[in-house]
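=== Structure Prediction Worksheet ===
Name of assembly: unnamed complex
Input type: mixed (protein and possibly other molecules)
Chain count: two
Listed entries:
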Amino acid sequence: MKLHGYFRSSASYRVRIALNLKGLGADHLPHHLRKGEQRDPAYLALNPQGLVPTLQDDQGAIITQSLAIIEWLEETDPEPPLLPKDPLRRAKIRAFAMALACDTHPLQNLKVLGRLRQIGLSEEQVTEWAAWANREGLSACETLIADEPGPFCFGAKPTIADLCLVPQLANARRFGVEVAAFPRLLKAEAAAKNLKAFADAAPERQPDAE
Amino acid sequence: MKLHGYFRSSASYRVRIALNLKGLGADHLPHHLRKGEQRDPAYLALNPQGLVPTLQDDQGAIITQSLAIIEWLEETDPEPPLLPKDPLRRAKIRAFAMALACDTHPLQNLKVLGRLRQIGLSEEQVTEWAAWANREGLSACETLIADEPGPFCFGAKPTIADLCLVPQLANARRFGVEVAAFPRLLKAEAAAKNLKAFADAAPERQPDAE
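=== Predicted Assembly ===
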C-alpha cells in the first residue's frame, strides 16, 4: 500500500495510527502542503479535493478521506478492532470521531486558514479562529465521554475516537488552546501516547518532518 | 424513535431521507436554529455540540452526528441497504459522503457563518464564503463520480452518497452557486428526487418549515 500524506496533517496522522495499530506497512509518500504540492495535477488525479491523505492499495485502488480509509482498513483487516461490535457503541464512537473530523478539523485546516487570510483576516484573527474551532470541538468531546471510565476515549483499548483525538489535541496546542480544560481527553491522550503505534505515527517522527 | 432536527438543516435532511428509505417512523422534534434553540441547556444535555440532528432510540439511547446515525440505522435496520457489501465500494461511497459532510457542509453551517459575521465580514463576504465552500466540495464530488454510470451517485440505487448530495445541492443553490457546472451530480439528484423517500424529506415538506 501507499499512503499519500503530510507529516503535520492530522487526517494523515489518523491513518498512520490505524496502520500501525493493525500492523500494516505502507510506503509513505509526502506531499508538502505548504508548498502547494497537493494541487499538482498528478495528485489531483488521485484526490480531486487536493487534500491528504489518499491511500492506494496493492491493486492500485484509490481511497480518499481519512475516516473512509480507516473504515476500509477495519473491514478488510479487522484485527485488532478499532470499533466494537455493538451498534450503539459503534455509533457513539463514530459520533465522537466525527465531531472532530467533520465539525472541528475542516474549519482549521491549511486550506481554510489560507482562505481566511485571503479575505483579509490578520494572522491574529486566523489563529483565534483556529483556536475557537478547536475549543468548540474539544469541549463537546470532553462532555461526550465524561461518563466513560477509560482510560481510552471509549474503554480499555483505542478506537477511531482516539485516532481522531490525539492529532486534534496536537493542533489545539499549536493554536494556543488551553487543553488543561479537558482532563478526560488528556487522560485518553496519555493512554494512547503510551502505545508505540501512536508514538511512531507522530508528526515529528515522519521522514518529511521539518 | 425521536429525531431532533430543523427543517433546513442539511444534516437533519440526510437522516430524514435515511429513515424514509428504510421505512422507519420517528417523531420529529424541531429546534429552531435561527432562534438559538439548539443552545437550550436541555438540548445541550442531549447534544453537547449544540448541533442537529440528534436521534433518540426507543430505549432512550442518544446518537449524534448525522453520518453516525445513518451508519447505526444501516447496522440495525439493514434493508434496503444504503451501502453495498464490497469494502472498496463502501469506501468510495463513504469518501464521497465525507467530502460533503466533513469538508463542505461544516464550513457553511449557521454556526460558522455566524462566527464570520461576528469577526466583521459583510453579508456579501459571508455568502461568497459559503458559495466557495459549496463549489469546492461539489466540484470534487463531480470528479469522484465522473466514471460512474448512475443514475444515482454510485449505481442503480441510492446510497449514503445521495443522502449527502441532495441536501448539499439545495444549500449550494441557496448561496447562488451555478450548479449547472455539475451535470453528473444533477443526474443523481434527479434520480433521487423521483423517489418519495427523498421528496418527503425535503425541508419545505417539514412541519416546522417557514
